[in-house]
Design a protein that fits this description.
single chain; 4 domains; eight-stranded mixed beta sheet; elongated; binds zinc ion
Length: 468
Amino acid sequence: MVSKEYLLACFNNDKYIDKSLIYIYVHDKEYYDELYIEGKVDSGARCFLEQYRFKLREIANNTPNASRLLEYENLINEYNSKNKGGLINDYKDVYINLLCPADKTRMRLTKLIKIKLHNSKKRIMPVYICPKCKANYTSVSCYSEKCKIHLEEDVYINLLPIYNSADYKKASSIQVRRLIKGRFYIYDNRKNEKRKNCRNSSCNNNKLKTVSVLFKSKKNKKNIQAVKWCDICKTYYAPYFLTEQFDFPYEIVNEKEVLEIKRERKQQVEEGSDIIKEHPKDNLPSIEAKDFVVRRSIFRCMHNDHSIDDILAWIEVIGKNGNIHYTKVSAGYCATCSIYFILESTYDNLKKQGIPICRISDEKNYLKSGNVGGMMLANESILMQYGYNVGQKEDLSVKTRHKILATLIDRHILRKSEIISYLDFFISQRQSRDMYRLAIAKWELDRDFVESYKEGKYQEVGVKGLYR
Ligand SMILES: [Zn+2]
Ligand SMILES: [Zn+2]
Ligand SMILES: [Zn+2]
């Protein structure tokens, strides 16, 4: 909501004694900008003025004095009825703190100055002065990092926020919006949707802008994030996981879709664990294909003096349908040995989902091996450790067996030739025995598959180089 009084009555300023804010905005934008920089313009009023800038100018130029006020009032009414509820677009522009590159001193914004670029476009330039070494800095996104900007007698060194922000490592902009209230369109980040245009039908596919927002999260931490924003309907587009952290009042535009997202997630949790298709975008560690995992009745390293961290980690699993998904497991981690430990019960749950993609050994083999090097040479075949099996008890489908072998090739765990020689070895060992007829048939089939498998055909992301 924005008040008519504030926009239309005499505005408190030094230059135009008996003029309104709208008048100043339309007739002297430069002076208006100065008032704004000095923090004298209310953020709601600023939103209104920016949104109706063309209409306001048109009214000022083409409408006779007598009806002008009425037209302005109509616009304000329209704006207020669209923005009822008052949750829209309430923010304060703030400038992030930067670190002086010379002495790492924290610098606040000192002042804003106006400059004219070569193309005679005006822009506002932030100035930071280091309290310690007194050097002058600025941050203008169109110039490169550390580039020197000469202005009259002074030289300003350009600092980009992404390299120099004091608090927010990934800040993409020096100017951020401190959100107090807001209106949001929420989408499911797990579905990897790209938002480029506003979904609001009255916005005519307006192209969304990227803005940096600063907000307080539930843990009372300050959070900075780049989100998309529609400058017509003043709606932010945010992924679901972000809104779960919001600790300020906000309005949801697509309530129905959000209920659907919530329902889907609840179902996933009830199915036993967080099963997701995309690589999760949180800070939990991932157990990778090359990692050693020992299933044990206890989280303990064979070296008694090694400490074990209790962690929650993502692990990839080849599901029954042959597709790979991520699931969360609790594990122990020995940082000294780089070995993960999972409980037998966790392992049983994983097996219910499919074949975990990592090198799994049991307690017996682990204790026998003596160390990680020993585990690598353990009696157990590496193929077995990765869940490959032709036994009737496990009864893996052809599809699953092939997916395991393809994954080992794609992730550079084993080369094609190595897998073939393992399979050849199994076949030659069991050749004479009739009871292995079925197993041999499976090995032969798999050997043919590996031989004709095009490396990289099912290339997966996350390859971190060779390791064995
Ligand atoms: Zn300094
Ligand atoms: Zn819009
Ligand atoms: Zn250890």
